[in-house]
């Protein structure tokens, strides 16, 4: 096939040169990520033969209005589109001896279809992990994903971006040199009208639900931080028993997950504390609704105390924590912080009441912090 001219952006080049099997494109609105990936699929199809390219989106109407329409536009602009190679009923286009198929996942059996060489998941955050996994294990060569990061918690973040065979590319509208100025103005208007939309759709950064109670950073405890106390929340069969070590420096609270385990008796808890090297002089504040457990652990030699009056107030503890910059470590702890949210009524209005879930390590943090920072002269023992 004779050479063809194509105008591309830097996003195209980054994806073209990505060395890993999986390439994840996170970007704001109109960053050109979808258009660039469709251009890439066409370029790859022009340089290879006998390959199957699958372009996927969750629903067929969305697929038709976005990726399918852009794909035909790109081919037309390159003087490559020929209707005789386009099977419109099957949503297949044949290019240079290759099959390019457009597949929606409205019907569950679609994702368990034949193998393919290349996969492009458009708006991948619409897919479930099961959707993606079934596609992943049937793709031999390369996988591209794109999405707007409007979700504050998603399998893309936890199951893909943590892998060592993934290239991560972030883009914004500033990476799209072909964007009309009027569109740029409209996007930049978000800076003064909607902070959340600006962060997600303008800056291409990961979203955070307005219902999420805490903002935090994942950061280890620095040497200069002073030990505050430990917090413990009791659980058993369904809920874990948790232990959190809490430290304080200036306007910062550093908290570390030390224990997060179900089916622990009080004797088991004592053994866990020994194994962790917890100083028996160090204060441990625990839920005052469990006086028997507190007394048993106290008799085993631990400096464990019930939370003082006021510390059992969930909102008082939340108010205390929100006065500080929070730094968290521990996988379960981080998951709780991302998912701890205010209750929303049927109209989407936030109520001054947290959802009773994802709160076991957070409750331990609340006990430790409120019992110490609501009084002076805290922290006699800098136990690390």
Secondary structure topology:
Blueprint: H1 10-16, E1 22-27, H2 33-47, E2 52-57, H3 60-77, E3 86-87, E4 92-95, E5 98-104, E6 116-121, H4 129-136, E7 139-147, H5 155-160, E8 166-171, H6 181-188, H7 190-193, H8 195-202, E9 216-218, E10 226-233, E11 241-249, E12 252-261, H9 266-275, E13 284-286, H10 291-299, E14 304-306, H11 314-321, E15 325-329, H12 331-339, E16 342-344, E17 350-354, H13 360-373
Parallel strand pairs: 1-7, 1-8, 2-5, 2-6, 6-7, 9-15, 10-13, 12-15, 13-14
Antiparallel strand pairs: 3-4, 4-5, 10-11, 11-12, 16-17
Short structural description:
With 384 residues, the protein is α/β, with parallel strands linked by helices. The chain has helices at 10-16, 33-47, 60-77, 129-136, 155-160, 181-188, 190-193, 195-202, 266-275, 291-299, 314-321, 331-339, 360-373, and strands at residues 22-27, 52-57, 86-87, 92-95, 98-104, 116-121, 139-147, 166-171, 216-218, 226-233, 241-249, 252-261, 284-286, 304-306, 325-329, 342-344, 350-354. It has an 8-stranded mixed β-sheet, sandwiched between helices.
Structure characterization notes:
The chain is α/β, with parallel strands linked by helices and 384 residues long. The chain folds into two domains: 10-202, P-loop containing nucleotide triphosphate hydrolases (Rossmann fold, 3-Layer(aba) Sandwich); 216-373, Nucleotidyltransferase, domain 5 (2-Layer Sandwich). It is built from 13 helices and 17 strands. The chain has an eight-stranded mixed β-sheet, with helices on both faces. The chain has a seven-stranded mixed β-sheet with strand order 9-15-12-11-10-13-14, sandwiched between helices. Strands 16-17 form a two-stranded antiparallel sheet. Helix 2 crosses helix 3 and helix 11 (314-321) crosses helix 13. Mean pLDDT is 91; it is low at 378-384.
